[in-house]
Amino acid sequence: MTYCVALYLRDGIVCLSDTRTNAGVDHIATYAKTFTVEEPGTRALVLMTAGNLATTQAVVGEVVDGRAFEGGAGRTLKQAETMTAAAEIVGAAVRRVHDRVAESLEAADGRFDATFILGGQIKDGPMRVFQIYTAGNFVEASEETPFLQIGEHKYGKPILDRAMRHDLAIADGAKLALVSLDSTLRSNLSVGLPADLTIIKRDAHKIETHRRITEDDAYFVQLRKSWSDALRAALAETPGAPWLSGDDQSAPRDTNAQTD
Amino acid sequence: MTYCVALYLRDGIVCLSDTRTNAGVDHIATYAKTFTVEEPGTRALVLMTAGNLATTQAVVGEVVDGRAFEGGAGRTLKQAETMTAAAEIVGAAVRRVHDRVAESLEAADGRFDATFILGGQIKDGPMRVFQIYTAGNFVEASEETPFLQIGEHKYGKPILDRAMRHDLAIADGAKLALVSLDSTLRSNLSVGLPADLTIIKRDAHKIETHRRITEDDAYFVQLRKSWSDALRAALAETPGAPWLSGDDQSAPRDTNAQTD
Q1: Which of A101, A206, B127, B159 has its CA 20 to 30 A from that of B181?
Q2: Segment A115-161, tens digit of pLDDT
Q3: Mean pLDDT across the stretch A29-54?
């Protein structure tokens, strides 16, 4: 399984993906699911993948590495003139891979399944973030719907629904994405560290941050702990229902002790 | 869709269910999914249901209402001598309904799908909480795994994973169940209010609280707001990543303004 989230912010894009792949519970591996394309001063793009690994690797091979596909060279993200053209390049690659493998995959009881998040900015065009579906079609994030998720998205969604806004600062966006990932890690073993965090700032035309976050990452360790503590403290501080008897209420808590 | 959660606490059981049923997005109805069986001084049980409504109503009809099923009278929860026997009565009813309808249901492209949470206490036996599967088999909550969920469970799970403990006070459990439901309501339109909250205290052998919580419930309105505020405040107070530049950090916030 996979968890990838992209936040579309006023000042840039924050992308975060896990790296776990599994075929059953006893065939676990680590593969990057985030790929970047950069021409400083001209373009900076990030592509995240979810779904069947053979399929997503084939698509990435065509659109990022520019590996020729059977039947001629495909276009790559380096050649896209606009972000919409870039999304169309990914969509077309998904459909080509589908045409090659879907029938054999289904004959082997597999399922053709590949989704992508593509974000970035090219030349004078706007910064944009797209989610590309298995059929190769796509939707775009907006100020009203400022985040996109692929893979195991449900556990990490409640905090985004409550706290995500297009005008968050980039550092707050990074925190929020990491908290959303942490909620997913705790609830689904098939999503695992390390994670890849990528930040592209608006009009910078470069990959600002591309950081691999491991179990030992001091900031992530601290964030996980302080977030859990904050949730438990928030719960303790919220008043109990007035229609429950006093006997059922917890004793007043020492919040410091509570968060130790 | 449905969301039901049961918390197995030292001092009792807290159960919460929504009431929305839907067949597509334009066929929405409100049905209770929580049923209680009470003999003051002897037994108090709560049964919550998820899945195909015709199936769950048939099971409830047999085990709660004691309606005779085709072929003879079934045993009901009022007749169970122990909680394990009660879970077996529900499991047997699920299998009987399966035998009657599964074939026709599948012929009509339907799916036999019914899961249950059963909690309570009978006479001198211990308080127990079971999750009963579509096949009629069941698992039990424990001090180490002190909550069970059925239906659309993922959105409401992160807060339970972080904050649920067997030794929470009952009022804290009620808060936690309501927060977990709120996370689900925000993320999935097919889960909807009103909700039914049921509390059975250990050794009380009666339904302590059975409260319908509507959109207008003053406590739930306050809880939803204060929880959202607390989450946003917690996010604002968590330090930003030291490896991001100062420009990307948000300005220090006035937490009071933040939580207004």
Answers
A1: B127
A2: 999 999 999 999 999 999 999 999 999 999 999 999 999 999 999 99
A3: 95
3-state secondary structure of B199: strand
Note the pLDDT of residue B71.
56
d(CA B118, CA A117): 42
Mapped onto helix, strand or coil, the DSSP state of residue B67 is coil
pLDDT (tens digit per residue) in A85-117:
999 999 999 999 999 998 898 898 888 999 999
**One-letter amino acid of B174:** A
Domains of chain A, residue spans: 3-215
| Cα A231-A233-A236 angle, rounded to 5 deg | 110
- CB A248 to CB B154 under 8 A? no
CATH of domain A3-215: 3.60.20.10
Quote the ipTM score.
0.85
Residue B43 pLDDT: 97
> Can you say whether the dihedral through the CA atoms of A53, A55, A60, A62 is positive or negative?
positive
> Closest-CA residue in chain A for B198?
A244
Name the percent of chain A lying above pLDDT 70. 92
Residues in A closer than 8 angstroms to B171, CB to CB, are 240-241, 244, 248-250
Instruction: Label each residue of chain A as H, E or C.
Output: CCEEEEEEECCEEEEEECCEEECCCCCEEECCCEEEEEECCCEEEEEEEEECHHHHHHHHHHHCCCCCECCECCCCCCCCCCHHHHHHHHHHHHHHHHHHHHHHHHHCCCCCCEEEEEEEEECCCCCEEEEECCCCCEEECCCCCCEEEEECCCCCHHHHHHHCCCCCCHHHHHHHHHHHHHHHHHHCCCCCCCEEEEEEECCCCCEEEEEEECCCCHHHHHHHHHHHHHHHHHHHHCCCCCCCCHHHCCCCCCHHHHCC
Are the C-beta atoms of residues B26 and B84 closer than 8 Å to each other?
Answer: no
Mean of all residue pLDDT scores within chain B: 90
- Which stretches does DSSP call E strand in chain B? 3-9, 12-17, 20-22, 28-30, 34-39, 43-51, 114-122, 128-132, 138-140, 147-151, 195-201, 209-213
CA dist B206 and A13 (Å) reads: 55
Answer yes or no: is pLDDT of A254 > 60: no
Query: Whole-angstrom Cα distance, residue B176 to residue B173?
Result: 5
Q: What is the pLDDT of residue A190?
A: 85
pLDDT digits (tens, 9 = 90+) for A210-241: 999 999 999 999 999 999 898 888 888 888 89
CATH of domain B3-239: 3.60.20.10
CB interface of B with A, residues 86-125, below 8 Å = none
Q: Does B31 touch chain A (CB under 8 A)?
A: no
